[in-house]
Please model this.
Amino acid sequence: MDFEWLENEILLHALNDSEKKILKEVFEVKEFEFGDHIINQGDTEKAMYIIRSGTATVSCSLEGKKTYLGSVYSGGIVGEMSFLREQPASATVYAMAHISAYKITRDSYCKLLVLNQEIVLNLLSYIQSYMAESLVATNQRLSTTNVDLALYHARGETLNRASN
Model:
């Protein structure tokens, strides 16, 4: 477990030996290779993964159609929505390269809540910031898409009027 990375990138807090021991108990280091599924849409495991290194792709299927949602890199989180909402996974996540990740289940998180609330607060702060940044990025993509669609429809209306 890369405690220095967790201290500097995720928790923003220097860990003492006791805290390192706790993190070893609640985080599971997971390795994935290209093509491995990390999470499958509909999974009920209620775990999230903090990507230490590598790249993951996120997609979902709606009415039988697979839709690419984005990529996640080092420092990114996957599974956070089902983890926090205690709902089945809303997307599929698979490795696009070798991935090293830290997995925490809902049960382990509850254990951490009892053992060290400071780490929980730092982790929640990181999750909150990550989700907020993801939402901003999604809003920007959607606003660009909506502008493109508006232009398309405007051109379509012009073409329809000209043909009448």
